[in-house]
Description:
By secondary structure, chain A is of the alpha+beta class.
Amino acid sequence: MEMSQYLEVFIEESKEHLQACNEQLLELEKNPEDLKIVNDIFRSAHTLKGMSATMGYEDLASLTHQMENVLDAIRNQKIKVNSEILDVVFLSVDDLEAMVESIAGGGDGKRDVSSVVEKLKLIEQGKSPAGALAAAETAVAIAEPPQFSAAKSSYDEFELTVIEQSNEQGFHAYEITVQLREDCLLKAARVFMVFEVLETTGEVIKSSPSADQLEEEQFDHEFTVTIVTKESIDDIQKKVMKVSEVEKADVHAISVEELKKQAADVEDSTQTTVEDTPVLAEVVDITPPEAQKDDKKAPAKQSSNKTIRVNIERLDILMNLFEELVIDRGRLEQISRDLNNQELQETVEHMSRISGDLQNIILNMRMVPVETVFNRFPRMVRQLARDLNKKINLQIIGAETELDRTVIDEIGDPLVHLIRNALDHGVETPEERKAKGKNEEGNVVLKAFHSGNHVFIEIDDDGAGISRDKVLAKALKNGIITEQAGAAMTDKQVFELIFASGFSTADKISDVSGRGVGLDVVKNTIESLGGSVTIDSKLGQGSTFSIQLPLTLSIISVMLVEIQKEKFAVPLSSIIETAIVKESDILNAHNQKVIDFRGKVVPLLFLKDIFEVPVSEQGDEFYSVVIVRKGDKMAGLVVDSFIGQQEVVLKSLGSYLSNVFAISGATILGDGQVALIVDCNALIK
Amino acid sequence: MVEEMTADLKLIVFQLKDKEYAIPVSQVLSIEKVEHITRVPGTANYVKGVINLRGIVTPIINLRSRFDLEEEGYNDHTRVIIVAVNDMEVGLIVDSANDVIDISEDSIEPSPEVVGNVEADYVLGVTKIEKRLLILIDLEKVLNVDDIPGLSGNTEE
């Protein structure tokens, strides 16, 4: 069979399953007793195994198989979860990821996984992967299996309660083991028929393997169903046997007392070695009803899922086409204004409204939750915390916040830098934290939220904070500032120094960070995205890095202004307001012309001079000023006249002109001409 | 490369002042008339600005000033040759673009050493067709951003 057409879907889904594994594993690390999580991981791993085997990626399948065995042992409570085991499982997930990556990159997905497989096998056998034999553990592993032989399925508290209650109401609980014929082709169909029969006689409360697995034919020829019913054993057996291709149906009654005794046995034997098993009993007590419900709901949810997968490329093409349309819309608007024809104007206005709606929809379609970037951080933080011997609790808030895909693609690396920075320089070692009277575990909060036309991402740590003196001393040493300048700086200005290139205050250089390359790159990347970074820090209490990002990069609202005969566009996002200022109201301060604007002194920047615009006509005594801001700093851009507000498509100047001062890009106006977009961030220092 | 087997090379021939220059057709995307050029401030004097080339913002340089020849006003013959080199798309303003010719590669001779001539840096070689002397130019060098002050690394102040 030709598999290549499924390859893309396979890669996508594998990535999703691996991500799910990663997330659930981290969850499991926090709640080692929660078997529901193990089940989830198992399910992901199992699907992955099935898919990769079908696609013919043997290494992938065999490693997943081994991992699955370990997970199976965990969920059957043969092995207890500890960080050592999780490390190995994480390792194997890493290997799986690498293999999927290799397949995605056109490789064959082969990889030497023997060492990991070996470790997994050791774990499965109940031995410590490091080779150190934990006697107690093995004892449990060996001691437990017999308990599962009495009843074919093991029952949790919830199921026991159901059986108990139905007994009280005169129902019987039966365990039915159905064996299908060896040559049975449509196993899933037979299973379905058996279930249908059983559901008419009573209520199915459990099946082993689970209904999902049965549906996917993930069983040999035998499965076990537990039902509660009022009918007799014989009747049920006869009914089941009527389903064709059923070889054998064993029905036997089960009693609650017996099951309870078994459950107690399990607990007894685990208690001897594991002290916190009572917690396990509690956990099991709470979660299964949900798990049960989830299981039943899941298939229904899937069928009503109203989403489709669309290749990102197609969305990009759609966006490009729409951008062309926006340019033409601008042109039409201008033509209709010039012609001053009532009907034409109405039509154009209507079209503008519709294309505005269309724009919203297209932009929304390209929105991706920041989760896609955030979800790799828990793993990274876990690893880093281990490398650094620190205890870190990473909290993620607002992962559902959406951003344009173009921004998402770029934001990952800067965030990695900032988080590494927070872990390495921010949060102190447990000993230091203890000495300072803080909780040993450091908190790092990653928060994303919308505000206006921007998305904010904050990285907050409760670590040591930034030392003003240290930063200043370092900046002096590296010749970034002079002593006088340093003394006059506000704390915020001092903190911004750490974004200067070649700057690092870490006392010792570590693998993680501290080479002084990084924060300046972070700043540059974010500014090139049209965003900004600010730092807030209190010595001893922690720091907050706040990143402000535009929602989208491709279509922005601008104010068009005219300087002599040239047109420039100023992004609306940085404009506070516009004003007309009389020449006599302009003050001089140290060779800098300023105006008094609502009680604030705002420096004036004459774009005519900055952009060396050829002067052909003299202005009058009134100046048109666009007040723009960067953070809490303001400036007044002096132009000749305001043209108006417009939505424009942001275009780059081309790689030949990649770094022009104070110009962030260009756009094509309605008349087909190019207007440059002013970069207010570069103008305000 | 000169010694290689006889291979045909298609060249676009254009004129600057009184000399004829040539670039391989493979590097040329299109030839346009001069449209409205939007000036880009803070760039080298020969960067005339950007144009809207069917929806793509394309930088334009004046080849005359790039070669340190005196600039002249644009007229009906003035053309913009859009070239693509190393993923860069740039328009070159030339006096006129008037010919496409085929030459064999081995007819290219190394450029004569001319002292004190700026354009010599960008000359790949010369070729003679009947009585015309064509100067082959190296676009990569012409467009090399690194040795152009005020193009890249155009930092603050």
